[in-house]
Amino acid sequence: MSEFELKTPQYDGRFPFVNQTKHCWQNYVDYQRCKNKKGEDFPACKEFFKVSRSLCPDDWVSAFFNVVLNTIMRMITYFINSILITPGIVSLGPRKFGRSNYYDLERLPSLIGA
């Protein structure tokens, strides 16, 4: 990644107080959303990145990234375990009244319209 000049971001009326933690987090989240929709080279995404890097300590950015990565890994692990550990069935919905909604994998293509 290329070097850029760190400078104090402009005043943001959504965060009027001294503690800039929420400002840091919001710009980090905005950068991630923008990057996913428009790509890293989009000018607004670059601005979110600069502001988040200016406000957020490096340790916080690492922690944010780890939270996102761990969440994704938990979701993948849960999905794989539901298929490999419980062969023949997969959960396709939230728990209702203490019972899970399970469907046969053979019926899965018809359920999802494939």
TrEMBL record:
InterPro entries: COX6B-like (IPR048280), CX6/COA6-like_sf (IPR036549), Cyt_c_oxidase_su6B (IPR003213). Gene3D superfamilies: Cytochrome c oxidase, subunit VIb (1.10.10.140). It comes from the Eukaryota. The chain crosses the membrane at residues 75-93. Its main location: mitochondrion. CDD domains: Cyt_c_Oxidase_VIb. GO terms for cellular component: mitochondrion; respiratory chain complex IV. It is found in: Mitochondrion. Keywords: Disulfide bond, Membrane, Mitochondrion, Transmembrane, Transmembrane helix. Belongs to the cytochrome c oxidase subunit 6B family. This is Cytochrome c oxidase subunit 6B.
